[in-house]
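Hi everyone,

Forwarding the result from last night's run.
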Amino acid sequence: MHLTLAEAVRLAQAVAETCAACPDRDVMIAPAFTSLDSVCTAVKGSPLLIGAQNIAWEKEGAYTGEISSVMLKDLGVNLAIIGHSERRQIFGEDDAMINRRMHGALNGDIQPILCIGETLADREAGNTFPVLEKQLRQGLDKVSSEQMAQVVLAYEPVWAIGTGKTASKEQAQEVHAFLRQLLANLYEKNIADATRILYGGSVKFDNIDNLMAQPDIDGALVGGAALKAESFDRIVRFR
């Protein structure tokens, strides 16, 4: 919940310039709903992808406060973040609701980015892997092998979001490798290998290189560091 309409457009235009200079990188921004239309118009024709911060499971109806795949496609939005830790922790969205949102996206031709992650209490209790397995299994319930070609995963340890704490590259890699093996068990190895798994949790310009050097980390879900064009530019240009 950041940036006015004018600020969002300026940031999107700056990021679009970065995308043009880095054709080998896929970059998405997910503005607030109030800015989606203007941002889509401002960067039309650029390689910058535009996503929504959430999506409903129905295409229309009495769902005050929600936004549907039909509405998003009408604007030119093609991706949606689902199950973000703030939606889970602050707004009480459970795995069942998140799974419904996943199907709302997939059935509406919107590419979903499914977020999963453990709290500090989970990690300290040694429950990281059981918690993540539950979230992944339930989030992907009845998602077919064919649909998995559209799914992106994002591992965001709740204890590292906005706290300045980042999972070490070893911790992040361990979890990403676990998730990829779990995908292989749920589907098959080629699907697991092809699925992009992003890391999100206090990603900054000074840790992106080490994170992206890990074999099972395919990208980053960036929060506060994406609010300034200069810091986000450096993240996009990771080495």
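The longest helix spans residues 169-186.

Cheers,
N.
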